[in-house]
Design brief:
elongated, alpha+beta, Umud Fragment, subunit A
């Protein structure tokens, strides 16, 4: 029974660590932004409650030209509303001024979005998503999440320290005593 409980706890701890790495550590290291999906427009590919990790895109035309049909992008449809939308690119074109523009559609929608997305509206390209990870994050504010990440890290470090001390103690106990 102890072995089963240990396996379950290790699996749970590993899962939590993996989710934290994918939703906090990797995005911070790479300058990407984790966002929680609030609607079902991208279902089933990206279900509600998933965390999408967005690689910000600047106004550099070379960056924008790498966006292709099929890429999932995050954009701000209206400048007066900070709400972000994450949809798939269905067509790439250009504005009358020659800047790149994009036609988008949510996977669950039957028609393309009514408005074209311009370079100024585009916030980034989704690099990956972590299904359901945003549900837990949505329950906590940013300070609570920060404290939670620190607590989990301290728990893992403490656990590692305890096992390290035990290993050293056990090794010392097995060493023969010299009686010269």
């Amino acid at each position: 029974m102890k072995g089963v409980l240990s396996a379950v706890l290790w699996t749970l701890a590993g899962t939590v660590l993996l989710v934290l790495c994918l939703t906090v550590v990797v995005p911070r290291l790479l300058g990407w932004v984790p966002l929680t999906v609030q609607s079902g427009s991208m279902s089933p590919a990206i279900p509600v409650g998933s965390v999408v990790v967005v690689d910000p895109v600047g106004p550099d035309p070379a960056e924008l030209e790498r966006i292709e049909v099929g890429d999932v992008v995050t954009f701000m449809p209206r400048p007066e509303d900070p709400t972000l939308v994450t949809h798939r690119v269905t067509a790439v074109g250009a504005t009358t001024g020659g800047d790149p523009s994009f036609i988008t559609r949510g996977d669950a929608n039957e028609q393309d979005d009514a408005d074209t997305v311009t370079a100024t509206q585009l916030r980034g390209v989704v690099r990956y998503d972590v299904p359901w990870a945003g549900r837990a994050a949505a329950l906590l504010d940013s300070d609570q999440r920060r404290v939670g990440v620190i607590l989990v890290a301290v728990c893992f470090l403490g656990y590692a320290a305890v096992h390290g001390v035990r290993a050293i103690r056990d090794a010392a106990a097995r060493r023969p005593v010299n009686s010269e």
